[in-house]
Amino acid sequence: MWHGIDMCSLVYSFAFVPCACEHQGIVDDQFTQLRKLEDENSPHFVMEVASLFFEDCEKLINNMAIALEQKQGVDFKQIDECIHQLKGSSSSIGAMRVKNACIAFRSFSDGQNREGCLRCLQQLSHEYSLLKNKLQTLFRLEKQIVAAGGSIPRVH
Amino acid sequence: MSCSSGTGNFVKLSGLLGEIHRCALVKMSMNGKFPASTCRLPANSRLKKAKEIMHRSNSFKKWNRYLIFLWLLGFFSVGFIWFLTSFNGVPSEGTEKIPPSCEDNARILLQHFNVSKNQLHALASFFYESDQVAFLECSRHSGPEKPSSDDITCALNVLCSKKPDFEKQMWVAKSSELKDQCPVRVENTPSAHDLSFPEHDSYVVLNAVSSLPWEHHTSRKNISRRTAPGVQSKDHCENLSFCMVKGCWLLLVGLVLSCQIPGVRLKLWRSRESEPAPLQPVPQKLQLLLQQKHQQQAQGPPKGAGKWRKKLLIIFVLMGILTSIWLFWHLNQKINLRREETLTNMCDERARMLQDQFNVSMNHVHALALLVSTFHHGKHPSAIDQKTFGEYTERTAFERPLTSGVAYALKVLHSEREQFEKQHGWTIKKMETEDQTLVQDCLTENLDPAPVKDEYAPVIFSQETVSHIVSIDMMSGKEDRENILRARATGKGVLTSPFKLLKSNHVGVVLTFAVYNKDLPPDATPELRIEATMGYLGASYDVPSLVEKLLHQLASNQTIVVNVYDTTNSSASISMYGTDVTDTGLLHVSSLDFGDPLRKHEMHCRFKQKPPLPWTAINASLGVLVITLLVGHIFHAAISRIAKVENDYREMMELKARAEAADIAKSQFLATVSHEIRTPMNGVLGMLKMLMDTDLDVVQRDYAETAHASGKDLISLINEVLDQAKIESGRLELEDVPFDLRSLLDNVLSLSSDKSNDKGIELAVYVSDRVPKVVVGDPGRFRQIIINLVGNSIKFTQDKGHIFVSVHLVDEVKGACDVGDKVLQQGLNLVQDMSSKTYNTLSGFPVVDRWRSWENFKTLNSKDAVEDPEKIKLLVTVEDTGVGIHLGAQDRIFTPFVQADSSTSRHYGGTGIGLSISKHLVELMHGEIGFVSEPGIGSTFSFTGSFAKGEVSSLDSRWKQYDPVVSEFQGLRALVVDNRSIRAEVTRYHLRRLGISVDITLSMESTCTYLSNACGTSDFAHLAMILIDKDAWNQERVLQFRSLLKEYRQNGRLNVSTNFPKIFLLATAMTPLERSKLKTAGFVDNVLMKPLRLSVIIACFQELLGNGRKDQVHRKKSTLGTLLREKRILVVDDNKVNRRVAEGALKKYGAIVSCVEKGQDALDKLRPPHNFDACFMDLQMPEMDGFEATRQIRSVETQVNENIASGEASIDMYGNVSYWHIPILAMTADVIQATNEECMKCGMDGYVSKPFEEEQLYSAVASFFESG
């Protein structure tokens, strides 16, 4: 139905961003599933979940960073727990690349490889910021659409 | 002859035919532009070749026509030849042989006549000197001599008495005969005589009369006899020509068939080929093409036909050669036959004439014998002495031109010898040598006297020429003796064998007649005859001169050589005449009867020359050969032409197939590549968009925006190219799905509204009432066309005016006189309203006459077209007030990649492909597209499209999303205040879609009057809203309305239950700030942003009028919803994101969800009594994981159950539930068998994968919720 791209509307962008994210592997089908859960009763469900996720994620990443910076003996158990948490929530929200980063991270933490863990943490935080950026763009668009008097196209 | 002349004609004609054929061929080749001999393709230029091939294939048909023409020509010419030959046979043959035969006959007649005449002459001379007493007897005896003048005797008898007259009469007769020398006048003789001698009605006349018919008869018989072979030969000729014609016919028919059949096959093949092409998808099409090509190569049907034709041609040529050989042989045979026949005729004729002449002579000798008998022995004393005899014989010698002399020998017995010798005064002498009678050149005196014999035959009289034989005893010669004995025994003339004559040294024979003393009966015995013998008359014949003279008389004696032989002794024939001849092939032998039965003579005739070459046969056969070869050549040329053309055709087909394949491959490539480009481009665009949302400085933002705009242009270009490629490759197929045309237009409007609002252009859509709600067609493509046209309009409209899309039925505009639709009337009234300052258009700016944009449409002009009732034709017009298209470019705007002019793309961008695609799409919809444009005023594009009427029920849910809402507004009334009627109509159209009936007033002032008029009526009671356009906006008036309405309400004239009419402002461009200002100021209840569309109106109205009717929009609940509805579910997860997600998901299905984050909490929550229906538990949790939690929950439950069962605890304590078992489902990300088993072991009821999958969740939940 949507042929011309010349209709550069918010609606298009709004529809496009998740597609682009999914195309780049930032999010997967789970995210679409989540968006499907939005309805009149919970119009901002995704936004809500996402902010929970961001909050949680930032805290965990922070924890892990601190843990890895410990000079005398890194608490890999703690890191492992953190990764598990992060992996669970990222898979729930459908943040695929974050999840994949977690999986990679976990193999290093299992191997008690600090350097690897540090690298992975960096990667993880990068993926996280990417995801956050995307989702925030999406939410801003949503807000703009609502502000312009339009209705948010629901995913069915 | 007739045949040969016929063939001569044939040859000529065939030459002509050949000429004609050649002409035809030359003409043909000229027409075809490739003369057979000179046609050489330039091998280096392929293009040229292909062109030429095309040309040739065109002339291929022409060729076939020429072949048929050729065939007809051949048929006619052969028929004509046949006709000629059959016709020629008749007249030519009659005249051929007659002249010579006639001449011959005339000569013969003349001869006979002369003979008779001579006879008479001889008689006359005799009378002259002798007594006439014995004449009677003599004439009676000489009767056989004059077979043709039997009547003479009577005439003479009568006339004899008039002796003085006789002489005169003889003379007259002679003279008259002299006159009759000319043979031609023979037939006229009777009349001539009648004229010249009227008083002498005498025998001459009689003679002529009596004799002529006979001759005539003979000649006629002769003619008829000669005609017979002619007829025969003619028959033969007919047969021959008929056979030839038949043969030619068959061959021609065969050839033509051979030409026609492959033609038909070709045609069939072509049509079969062209059949399946269009609807194949591309790869199959490609494959099909290749397959066809292979088939072509494998089968090669025309090639086989070509071979067949060649074989036929060879057979034809061979048959022609055979025919010509046969014709030669046949004609040669005929010529030989004719030659032989001629020879036979000539030979027979000569033989007969010789025989006749000889017989005449013989008769004369016989007559002489009788004369002697009459006058010598019958008279006493004898009337004849040597002198008389000599003189008479000398004078009548002309009668016997062939005899060298006659002599009479008396029969003298030995007893009478002395007396005889005494009487004559000489002794009987003997011949010197026995075998040389009359020949020796010596004096009689020198001869010895004859020896004593029984009888002697001394010569007593002799002609002067042979006077030397007087007194010689003829019996002394052996030959002569035998002759004499035979003659007297038979009483007929007897011949000796030939010998050399004495003086002339010619070969001669002696004829001997016996003279009897009395008249003997014809059946007298030999003894009687011997008894009666008185003497012997002998005559010697000079055969060569006889024959020579005879031959001299006859025509064409130059051509043949005649030999006469005595064949009495068959083993050793004696030549009597003629030189030794060389064998010239043909020989005819005719037997001669000289009256002597013992002797046999033959005449041998030969042609002098060898037969000449049979030119007629050679010519005819050569002619046939030449014709055959010519026709063969023509057909060969034709066949090779056909083969060549067929080859070219095949080659062309191959090239065509290749070109088509290449074309399809190109389109396919384009489509694929375009698609491949589009995917990453989406990424690029998305990223750019995101980049623009990040914190960028001004320059960066500018770069990003430029990149984004370019990317968008590229994408749109790619999309268009893709469409174009799809259209070109024929892959673009239209869908047939029902859709709501009005919603679709709303959608288009909403997409374009951004730009139009930016530019300040008013954008509106209007659909006629008569257009059904649901139509069946391709919504995507329809929308694409409209988007394209609207996009163009927006692009080319500068900051003023409007763009107006209207949809009508074609039927509505067909009859211009009864246009009911108000929007359509606008175009008609346009001209009339020109005087007023503003135009009666949407925005007040002038527009072009939209009627002109569709005036050339065929569908509009064909008024009698019978329409399918299920089909509707829509007419869509997109009207703008843009820059317009200048006239020079108007005819090429539908060409792909061509814009009105090159500056257009500079100013406005774009590729110019959109209109081309639109045109193709319209054509696919069986419609037409047209436009009218005036620079400076604007353009109007119109197109038609064929759609089917659809049922509302058949609509996809996508189109139905407003259906429940619409019913809310049913029955309401609205008042539209707008100073432009068209715009008011558009508003009315939108409101009517919601079931709101609309009244229109053109200004605020009239609204007041309307309100006061309507006050109190039911209409006013239902008046729910007043929509005021911004152009008609007037703040004071609005306040006036408010107070007016309040007043009416207070007066109680308004029903309390009805709501107060809401006031809306219709605005094109208005900032949110202005809007909120107006709203808070209380002027309006809400502001409706144009372009008007259903969703906006509904949203706007719902906000004000709707009383929380959101519930009415029921979503279709899934089965999961029915299962989980109102179920209380506890979600246990330490991760709050997960918790929230799970909660959201379950809530969606209607479940009431509680969350805890620790296993311990779950344990507390689930300690009976509780009111949870299920628990979803995460497995991995800090402190207490899912397994442990479950185990503990289960142990608590077991304990409680035991207590209840054992009665330790009352059932009331545990919420009247006798058996506690909460379904616990594990939530796990990694569903593996081991986990599953462990779950079961620790007392879980099942598991669900962590991001919930509907299917899996359902199956897990269903197992324990379905029953309850």
UniProtKB/TrEMBL annotation, chain A:
Pfam families with a match to the protein in the record: Hpt
TM regions (residue ranges): none
Record domain HPt: where: 42-148
Location of the protein in the cell: Cytoplasm, Cytosol; Nucleus
CDD domains xref list: HPT
GO terms for cellular component: cytosol; nucleus
MF terms (GO), sorted A to Z: histidine phosphotransfer kinase activity; protein histidine kinase binding
Chain's role: Functions as a two-component phosphorelay mediators between cytokinin sensor histidine kinases and response regulators (B-type ARRs). Plays an important role in propagating cytokinin signal transduction.
Free-text note regarding domains: Histidine-containing phosphotransfer domain (HPt) contains an active histidine that mediates the phosphotransfer.
Protein name: Histidine-containing phosphotransfer protein
The organism of origin for this protein: Gossypium darwinii (Darwin's cotton)
From TrEMBL, chain B:
Enzyme Commission number(s) of this protein: 2.7.13.3
Transmembrane segments: 66-84, 312-329, 613-635
Positions of the CHASE domain: 380-604
Cited InterPro entries: 2C_system_His_kinase, CHASE_dom, CHASE_sf, CheY-like_superfamily, HATPase_C_sf, HATPase_dom, His_kinase_dom, HisK_dim/P_dom
SMART domains: CHASE, HATPase_c, HisKA, REC
Primary localization: membrane
Catalytic reactions on record: ATP + protein L-histidine = ADP + protein N-phospho-L-histidine
GO cellular component: endoplasmic reticulum membrane; nucleus
Modification 4-aspartylphosphate occurs at: 1029, 1178
Sequence ranges assigned to domain Response regulatory in this UniProt record: 973-1105, 1128-1265
Membrane topology term: Multi-pass membrane protein
Gene Ontology biological process: cellular response to abscisic acid stimulus; cellular response to cold; negative regulation of iron ion transport; phloem or xylem histogenesis; regulation of chlorophyll catabolic process; regulation of flower development; regulation of meristem development; regulation of seed germination
PROSITE patterns in the record: CHASE, HIS_KIN, RESPONSE_REGULATORY
Subcellular localization, as worded in the UniProt entry: Endomembrane system
Keywords: Kinase, Membrane, Phosphoprotein, Transferase, Transmembrane, Transmembrane helix
GO molecular function list: cytokinin receptor activity; phosphorelay sensor kinase activity; protein histidine kinase binding
Pfam families the UniProt entry points to: CHASE, HATPase_c, HisKA, Receiver_CRE1, Response_reg
Origin superkingdom: Eukaryota
Domain spans labelled Histidine kinase: 672-949
Classification via PANTHER family: HISTIDINE KINASE 2, TWO-COMPONENT HISTIDINE KINASE
The protein's name: histidine kinase
Phylogenetic classification of the source organism: Eukaryota, Viridiplantae, Streptophyta, Embryophyta, Tracheophyta
